[in-house]
Fold:
Amino acid sequence: LDRLDECLEKLAPAARNLCDLRYRDELSIDLIAQQLGKTTASVAKTLQRVREQLRGCIESRGLSGEPL
Structure:
């Protein structure tokens, strides 16, 4: 979780906001899309890319031996 927090801080503000809406506020992708004026497909794809970014960041921190 420490690695996740560090990686979340490195996200662009818009990506971090999207994560907050989806995972902290537990909004559906449809509702997020409505709030942001975007398509559901666009929000879903952006979330997929953000998760991939976070996964890569977390994995690279684990492989580099950085302390938790």
Q: What stands out?
A: The chain is about 80% helix and 0% strand. The mean pLDDT is 92. The helical segments are 2-10, 13-24, 29-36, 40-63. Residues 40-63 form the longest helix (24 residues).
